[in-house]
Amino acid sequence: MASVVTTTLLLGLAAFLSYRFRGSKNINPHRLPLPPGPKPEIIIGNAREIPAHSSWLQYTDWRETFGDIIHLEALGTHIIVLNSYKAARELLDLRVAYADRPVRIMDCELMGMGRTAFLSPYSEAWKSYSKHPGPFTTICDCAFCLEALILWLRINYLSFNLAGFTGKSLLMFAYGIAVNSVQDELIATVENLNDGSIRLAHPGAAFVDLVPILKHVPSWFPGAGFKRTAKAFKAELDDAVQRPFDHVKAELAAGTAVPSFTSNCLQDGSYSDYYTIWSAGSMYFAGTDTTLAALKTFFLAMALYPDVQKRAQVEVDRVTKSSALPTLEDRDSMPYIACLLKELQRWIPVAPMNLPHRLMESDYYEGTLSNGPPSYFLPEGSIVLANVWAITQDEANYKDQKRF
């Protein structure tokens, strides 16, 4: 048994070294330096310095030493961290070469999460998600959804569960599924799936991502437990997105479907089943934890700053005449509410680190060859991360950044 494990590790190391030296031929014709960063160790690079949890705090600390753009290397993989709004906007918003997602073998390929809109690589499917967002606004403005949710909240007020409320809200928007045991089961399933995927969210969380050839190892092979785990996750994921989709189709056939994102897509007829299934699933998977976190931040801010809550309520009452809930049409009439929502995202951002991007071709940062000498070389295949926490807590832009 020991010899088998040793052989496996040696094969993995050989594959990694081959991959690393092949990738080291990244063309750098101007011989520019990489962005500054912590000194890497031999072979493993900065792998031991990359935090497994709350990485944004470490990256923010490193900004004081290395600046707004930081380079790390983990077992041959280049990682670029952007610590300023200027760098993040210049690279991620304005340059198409950063539109791809990194090839994360474990969660995207083996676990099947690469089919979601938020982890999909740059492909025809990704373009479809981007160009055809689907009938979102009609669902967001459905009065029946809001009224049903308010009714549920009032009925369950004494035992109010914010996580349950968020899950039920998103399932109603995505699938029009009413409050029942089936919905509760779906919520529990998706919560389990989210917990499993979050553990693999940071670069290098799974060894197979660092040594991709290991994905071909049979699931029965010693040390290949990750493949069995991924297979079970993928089966549960497929069921979690297919079951509510089939439910909506059956409801439409019976003439009892409640308006929802999925029912609207199916009735429209211009969206494929694949698009509808994974768009609705992405809406729910991406929305549960983030919406819950945003609501918690809102309640915390209103409790700590009652004067803000009072001003917001006055504006809502003025616009709605205290007789109805605000709608999307009222947005332009409520500038204070708009600023409040933006400040919530700045004060305690829901996602302190953005989802990783992958650089599709070598690039430069700080100037271009046409308007001046560039400062840094960014290798093709680099994982690029925007440190949202560092950007929103930057003292240069926010004098009292910890105050709401």
From TrEMBL:
Its cofactor is heme. InterPro entries: Cyt_P450, Cyt_P450_E_grp-I, Cyt_P450_sf, Cytochrome_P450_fung. Keywords: Heme, Iron, Metal-binding, Monooxygenase, Oxidoreductase, Signal. Residues 1-23 form the signal peptide. Pathway: Secondary metabolite biosynthesis. One of its GO terms (molecular function) is oxidoreductase activity, acting on paired donors, with incorporation or reduction of molecular oxygen. SUPFAM superfamilies: Cytochrome P450. Gene3D superfamilies: Cytochrome P450. Belongs to the cytochrome P450 family. This is Cytochrome P450.
